[in-house]
Amino acid sequence: MTAETPTLEIGNVVTLKSGGPKMTIASLIESPDTHGRNRVQCCCHWFDGAQEKEKWFAEESLELAK
Question: What pLDDT, on the 0 to 100 scale, is given for residue 16?
């Protein structure tokens, strides 16, 4: 994240910058991208009706929910 944007943490409620449901960050990992730079990946959980969903997103694609 940039200096103006707070770093995301486990337990934060976030959304994709492009929109979508509110999600909770369950875990974070750092992994190298295809260019060898470390990037933070966030495992997010959310509900679609009664069904729980889970997916990994790049930290740069998320923002704190408003």
Answer: 98
